[in-house]
Write a structure and sequence with these properties.
Shape: globular
Strand content: 15-25%
CATH superfamily: Vaccinia Virus protein VP39
CATH class: Alpha Beta
Radius of gyration: 18 Å
Oligomer: single chain
Mean pLDDT: 87
Distance between the termini: 69 Å
Number of strands: 7
Number of domains: 1
CATH topology: Rossmann fold
CATH architecture: 3-Layer(aba) Sandwich
Low-confidence stretches: 1-7, 214-222
Length: 222
């Protein structure tokens, strides 16, 4: 049976996320890992960034089968159950994954072990400071989960730009680029003129992050 979200949610190619990655200077010369790869529609974008091999992790079986036609390898399992294959990845994509986890920091710390020395994370999370959430909470006094969107009923954690940055830093990463995106063109237009409005009008937060520089340890004291 085909998952009812496959054509829509699991079929998105997330072109806006990869446009952001290119603007941020992301270039790949080795393998890429996409955690939550859905139906693998973003395969051309990953290869366009230079990925030589695409490995996906996807818990929804119908989406994983579709992704397997586009990726070099796909493991159908939750990321918490995934066994690292010892490959060092130049790029790890975590697009709308962290909000589904009770402990997203744990996954971020694990991902640091999977990265190559020059590896990069490409991430996105929903923006809980979006006006739709605030209107419902502040004006209507309601917090209602839905089948999809910022208050998707499978979301366990919620982020603003500030708390998302803090999560990355606390997990040992250095955010090198952050941006916001919204599906509604009017919100994007207003945010270009008034950047601060993006925190309220744009529903997604994007980030490129790399492991923080290792601490240089001097010679032991005599």
């Amino acid at each position: 049976m085909t998952d009812p979200k496959e054509v829509g949610y699991y079929g998105l190619d997330r072109s806006e996320l990869y446009d952001f990655a290119r603007r941020a200077g992301v270039r790949v010369t080795g393998p890429a890992l996409n955690v939550g790869c859905a139906g693998g529609a973003d395969a051309p974008h990953l290869r366009g960034l230079g990925a030589t091999r695409l490995h996906g992790v996807e818990p929804v079986a119908s989406a994983a089968r579709t992704a397997a036609k586009r990726y070099d390898a796909v493991d159908c399992c939750p990321v918490d159950a995934w066994t690292w294959d010892r490959t060092r990845y130049d790029l790890i994509v975590l697009a709308d994954v962290l909000e589904h986890l009770a402990d997203p920091g744990s996954l971020l710390r694990r991902a640091g072990e999977w990265l190559s020395p020059e590896g990069t994370l490409l991430l996105s999370v929903p923006n809980v400071r979006h006006v739709s959430v605030l209107w419902s909470l502040v004006v209507r006094g309601d917090w209602r989960y839905r089948e999809e969107g910022i208050l998707d009923d499978t979301h366990l954690r919620f982020f603003t730009s500030k708390s998302f940055r803090r999560l990355l830093v606390d997990a040992g990463y250095r955010p090198v680029a952050m941006d916001r995106f919204g599906l509604h063109r009017a919100g994007r237009s207003v945010s270009r003129v008034v950047p601060s409005a993006g925190e309220l009008l744009l529903s997604q937060i994007f980030a490129v992050a790399r492991p923080a520089a290792a601490v240089v340890v001097g010679p032991p004291e005599r």
